[in-house]
Design goal:
mainly alpha; 1 helix; single chain; 27% helix; flat; 97 residues
Amino acid sequence: MGPMVLTQVATGLSVLAGAVLVKSMMDQKPMAGPFPRCPTCNGTGRVTCLCSRWSDGDVGCSTCSGSGRMFCSSCGGSGTGRPLPSRIAIRTPNRPS
């Protein structure tokens, strides 16, 4: 084998090793961040628009801009779950002294 063939084999093996490393990292921690995928839109951020359910077969309205897909109402179009802001107030009972 000449030096050119050995260089090409080494390059191919390093690319393969890099791909395996990236896949193993993606399996451990997906890029979606700390929030899981939205179960309503399965992480796409879009759901079927209501206009596509009309019986006349036309698709398109101002909400979906003619695409037949509108933003998901569960995740707001982000594709990931989002925490709901909440406030918990703890009150101590008034005890007569």
